[in-house]
Design goal:
- The protein is of the alpha/beta class and 377 residues long.
- It has twelve helices and nine strands.
- Strands 1, 2, 3, 4, 5, 6, 7, 8 and 9 form a nine-stranded mixed sheet that branches.
- Helix 1 packs antiparallel against helix 2 and helix 10 packs parallel to helix 12.
């Protein structure tokens, strides 16, 4: 498919530099799918651009309608074949002790206020519609600290057991005290859980790479090796330490935050050495970090599909900064910024996913306007 499209691109573009660059990138992705090489950060953008063309029907039907989710899963199979004789570098390790969690400050979500506006009403309505449709006896909220607008009291009143997990157990306890009436609290179970299973290993690996280097230039190759060594498969990803499969799993506003702490961890270590942090966002670290974020996001999507009987996934998909325009009206200061490498949340789902409901709305926080999309599968 990529080989065919690269030929078509060359024909249409007439061999100009942009066309040659595009063909080269697609040829590299084709080699990844043939298990001839590994996927690296600089290939994520052309891969996403290609699947966007497929999803928006801008290519002939014979190319198919594969999503980015489909592409990443296919690539993962090819990478497993490419690595079949290599030593495993990473493990999915989600359960955290209090001591290990204390070292993950850059991954813990910052406290946010509950949204009392349209976002809060739409989120609550979508979740409760799912509860009505599924009638769960047990529910799981993954990353429960990410959006305090979730209707936890109503969820607890309709389920026999509700499990809430996140990195910060004391804050989860406080959340329950604030939002769940005392007679219902016996139904709540809390757990300290890393939904990527990678945070402790990444923090240790990044610290070792930076502590042993004399300069950013010396640390960069070691950090790049760490990022590119990630070899956990989507099948290993989980949602909870509980053995029982939840009737309904809910992930709200967690997806874009799953990989945000990787760059923050490196930046904090650089700052502690009085190093300039600007290079973290540029090549080669920037694209490598973007790919790792994309992979752990996809693994979370797969875990929702595989490890829960039904699931609700709600996420900001893009955001734009607003500025005051003519006549005092707010206007976009720039083009929208994609948060999930795609234009729409369903593009992160494989075609096999059975989407039973979906909605979208906007959320404004200060000068930032975000597009929120929700799906039930």
């Amino acid at each position: 498919m990529f080989h065919k499209f690269s030929q078509e691109t060359m024909r249409r573009r007439g061999g100009d530099q942009a066309g040659r660059d595009g063909v080269q990138a697609l040829a590299a992705v084709d080699a990844v799918l043939k298990a001839e090489r590994l996927l690296t950060g600089e290939l994520l953008e052309p891969l996403a651009a290609f699947t966007n063309l497929l999803q928006s029907s801008q290519l002939p039907p014979e190319f198919g309608d594969y999503s980015l989710g489909d592409a990443l899963l296919a690539i993962e199979e090819a990478q497993a074949e490419h690595r079949q004789h290599a030593e495993q570098h990473w493990e999915f390790d989600p359960e955290l002790s209090a001591e290990s969690a204390a070292g993950l400050r850059d991954f813990v979500p910052a406290p946010v206020e509950a949204d009392a506006g349209d976002h809060g009403a739409r989120l609550k309505g979508f979740v409760l519609e799912a509860v009505e449709a599924v009638a769960p006896k047990n529910a799981l909220v993954v990353g429960a600290l990410r959006d305090p607008t979730l209707p936890l009291a109503e969820l607890c009143s309709r389920c026999e057991r509700v499990t809430l997990n996140d990195l910060d157990l004391p804050r989860l306890e406080d959340l329950v005290r604030r939002q769940v009436p005392e007679p219902l609290r016996a139904r709540v179970q809390l757990e300290r859980y890393d939904p990527t299973g990678s945070y402790v290993a990444f923090a240790a690996g990044a610290k070792s790479a930076i502590d042993s280097a004399a300069s950013p230039a010396e640390a960069e190759p070691a950090l790049l090796r760490l990022l590119e060594s990630y070899d956990v498969g989507a099948g290993s990803a989980g949602l909870s330490a509980l053995e029982t499969q939840p009737d309904l799993a809910i992930s709200a506003q967690l997806l874009p935050e799953l990989g945000a702490g990787y760059a923050r961890t490196i930046a904090a270590a650089y700052a502690a050495r009085a190093w300039d942090t600007a290079s973290i966002a540029t090549a080669p670290l920037g694209p490598a970090l973007a790919l790792l974020r994309c992979l752990v996001e996809q693994h979370h999507v797969q875990a929702l599909l595989r490890r829960a009987k039904s699931a609700v996934l709600v996420s900001a998909v893009s955001e734009v900064t607003l500025q005051r325009g003519a006549g005092g009206k707010d206007v976009a200061a720039s083009e929208p910024h994609d948060l999930l490498t795609v234009e729409h949340l369903v593009e992160r789902l494989p075609r096999s996913a059975d989407v039973k409901a979906e909605q979208s709305w906007e959320q404004r926080r200060g000068r930032v306007l975000a597009l929120i999309e929700a799906v039930r599968v």
